[in-house]
Design a protein that fits this description.
The chain is α/β, with parallel strands linked by helices. 31% of the residues lie in helices and 18% in strands. It has 6 helices and 7 strands; from the N terminus they run E-E-E-H-E-H-H-E-H-E-H-E-H. A 5-stranded parallel sheet has the order 5-4-1-6-7, with helices on both faces. Strands 2-3 form a two-stranded antiparallel sheet.
Amino acid sequence: MTDAQPIRLYIFDADGTLRRTTVPGLPCPNRPGEWELIPGVRERLARIDWGEGGARFGVATNQGGVGLGYMSLAAARRLLDDMVVAAFGVRPPHGSIEVCPHAPHLGCACRKPEPGMLLRLMRRFRVEPGQTLFVGDMDRDEGAARAAGTRFMWAHEFFGWPQTP
């Protein structure tokens, strides 16, 4: 993997990277109205050429609340679709959102830091690991990128936020 290769696929984590919950103590939203885009996300994403011949994007997100019964998979997908519309200004392209709906600690192959969701997105968009950048906010995001062989960038660096201690 060389950093000289152009990025053809940007994969983003959802919670803590593109959106944040508005309910204190809740790690990710369970219903509409419980989230907002993180300031600066829309503006930063608008600077990337997503058009014909430009980069593609995907979302890879652990949604353990589905497996724990806090919400249905359909409800989680609707919230993620709404997040993509708010962040990118378009409906998510078919197959661009990967969700691990399993409860934490089940040992599934898709839950980050496992690379399953990233590998599926790269296969779907026919992009090599060296042409992929995964942006996230947690150690498990960095671990998934490493396991998938992709580049990784912390969300605060990608979006230009101050790093919180």
